[in-house]
Every structure is written in C-alpha cells, then in structure tokens.
Specification:
By secondary structure, the protein is of the alpha+beta class. The protein has nine helices and seven strands; from the N terminus they run H-H-H-H-H-H-H-E-H-E-E-E-E-E-E-H.
Length: 258
C-alpha cells in the first residue's frame, strides 16, 4: 500500500469513527494544519448523516405481514435453511447498503478520474447559472409538450432522456433545452417549486467514464451532485442546502435506475 493510500484509508476510518482513540487523537492533531483533508473528512461525515436521514425512515416501518408469517413457520433445519425472515432482512439491508455505497460512495478513483469527470459539474453549473434566472425563456420546450421535448432531446443527446417526477419533493417539471457539454450535445431539464426555486438536471453521454458514486461540487451559491451510470452523465444543480439537494439527487437516481 502506498503512503497516500494508507493516509486515505486512515481518513476514511477516522471519518467513520473506526480508529482507536490514540490513533484518532494523533490524526486530529495532524489535521489541525491541513484544511483540505479536514474538509474531506467533514464532507464524508455530512454524506453519512445524509444517508442516515434518507434511509432511517425504513427502520421505523412496520415489518410486512408476509415476513412475520414466514418467521412464524419453523424451519426443519435452521443451520441448513435459515428462517426466511432472516434471509429477507439480510437481503433488505444488503440492498440498502448497496444503494448507499453505490450512490454515495467514498471517492477512491484517484486523481485521474477526478480530473476526467470535472467537465460534467462545470458544464452543469454554467448551464444552471445561465438559464435558471431567466424569466421568460428558461426552457426551449415547455413541459406541456413533454413527448416532443423528450423525443427531441433524446435524439440530439444520443441517449434516451427521461424526466424524473419530483412532485413529491415539491418540484414541477418546467421543460427543457439543448445544452453543450464537455462531451458533445447534452440535455437540460428544469424544475421549479412554488417559491420559485429552480433545479436543473443535465444529462450527457460519457461512455469513457465508469464512476458511479455521487460527487458534490459547489460554485458560489450553486451546488451540484453528479454521477455517471451506463455511459450517461447526470448532474443535478440548484441553490439549495446540500442535504436537500442530495435527497433530490437520490430520488432522481432511484427513478432513473428502478
């Protein structure tokens, strides 16, 4: 393991509160003079808290009757055939873990990938800054022409464009427009809530990148969560608190990856 990798591993363990007390104290002393690494730890802990906020309601849900019924049936051989409720619970928790780790993973891809993906949030931030403040022409095609909008953008962007439904989060689709990206034509979908806050979702082809973990960038008051999946780059931008934007991005991700 390289020195850099070892330091990164220690930072991850520290962020997760998994370092022994003595090692944690020493690392805290070292971080006192390293603002960048302290910021990384703070970002990771903020992501962890956002994950807890996003998934903790699941823990409060009642256990489905079918699982309770399965638990009441004794298995003939517990060692060979674990009770089905345990299997179901394990599968459920595994699914939660996979979503959390897949969507909001630690960035272990290294500097090269970080540089490669930098074009996506840059494009999205610029597009949002340019078009979100527009009063009369924030979009080229309105949501009332949804079929035409999605068909046109899909053809121009070279990938199937779907518009996630964000009404449950208080945002309505306004429409969309064609935008430029670091890798050719891209599509922008814009949403608005009753207070006039706007979100923009930029999608573009990015077949050379395989990174799937959510990442966050910010410029002035605009934040963006972005990720790559199936050769398509996604970037959700808005002037919203990071935790709220993360929740929205998670909703978008789930709808586009059912």
């Amino acid at each position: 393991m390289t020195e850099r990798a070892r330091i990164d591993e220690d930072l991850v363990r520290y962020a997760d509160h998994r370092l022994p007390a003595a090692e944690a104290a020493e690392l805290e002393r070292q971080l006192a003079g390293k603002a960048d690494e302290r910021a990384r730890v703070d970002d990771w802990r903020a992501q962890d808290e956002a994950i807890r906020m996003a998934f903790s309601p699941i823990l409060a849900e009642e256990i489905p009757e079918r699982l309770l019924a399965a638990a009441s049936v004794p298995a003939p051989d517990v060692a060979a055939h674990p009770p089905r409720w345990r299997i179901a619970a394990a599968v459920g928790w595994l699914a939660i873990g996979l979503i959390a780790g897949f969507v909001i993973g630690r960035d272990g891809s290294g500097p090269a990938n970080a540089e490669r993906i930098a074009g996506l949030p840059h494009d999205a931030l610029i597009a949002h800054a340019v078009y979100a403040p527009e009063i009369r022409h924030p979009v080229e095609v309105a949501a009332s022409e949804r079929a035409h909008l999605l068909g046109w953008l899909s053809k121009r962007a070279g990938t199937t464009i779907r518009a996630p439904a964000l009404e449950s989060e208080g945002f309505q689709l306004m429409g969309g427009r064609l935008v430029t990206s670091h890798d050719g034509p891209g599509a922008m979908l814009m949403y608005e809530n009753v207070t006039g806050q706007r979100l923009s979702l930029v999608l573009c082809r990015d077949e050379d990148e395989t990174t799937t973990a959510f990442r966050y960038a910010q410029k002035d008051r605009i934040g963006v969560f972005y990720w790559i999946d199936g050769g398509v780059g996604y970037a959700l931008s808005g002037e919203l608190p990071r935790e709220q934007l993360l929740k929205l991005a998670t909703t978008v991700y789930r709808q586009l990856n059912p």
